[in-house]
Specification:
The chain is of the alpha+beta class and 75 residues long. It contains two helices and three strands; from the N terminus they run βββαα. A hairpin with a 3-residue loop joins strand 1 and strand 2.
Length: 75
């Protein structure tokens, strides 16, 4: 079954009243159902989109999803 990765957004409240927008990655199956999610990957949307492009281009299986994201974060 094909997996498609897409961006997600979350708002995090820090220091009482400051709001920080973070970006995560959602893995969906061919039916569009969410099968996995890695929240708060980065505050940098471009970085998160590059990781998503890598995941989709290389057709990464969901079992390797977290490992690939962590590898990219540690570059």
């Amino acid at each position: 079954m094909e997996t498609v990765y897409a961006i997600s957004q979350n708002a995090v409240v820090i220091e009482g009243s400051n709001i920080l927008l973070t970006y995560g990655i959602v893995a969906k199956n061919s039916k569009g159902e969410k099968i996995s999610e890695f929240c708060d990957v980065s505050v940098n949307r471009e970085f998160t989109e590059r990781v998503i492009n890598l995941l989709n281009k290389c057709e990464i299986e969901p079992c390797h999803f977290y490992d690939v994201v962590l590898d990219e974060l540690n570059r």
